[in-house]
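[Q] Does anyone have a clean structure-token version of this?
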Amino acid sequence: MVLSISMVLLLGIAVFFLWKTGYQRIVPGIVVCLFGFFLASTGIAPTITATVTSVAGWISSL
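[A] Here you go.
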């Protein structure tokens, strides 16, 4: 059985734990989220998506 978890969920969990442990503050976290949101609407978004998908595929083949 293959378990597939969304990158948004994984990154959300990582940010939550970073915030709870004190390594990440809330205001810089919001700025990073907004940067990602606006980056997703640019022309480079398909390239980023393809790269992340490629790396994830490479990791899962190990």
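[Q] Thanks! Anything notable?
[A] The two ends are 17 Å apart (CA to CA).
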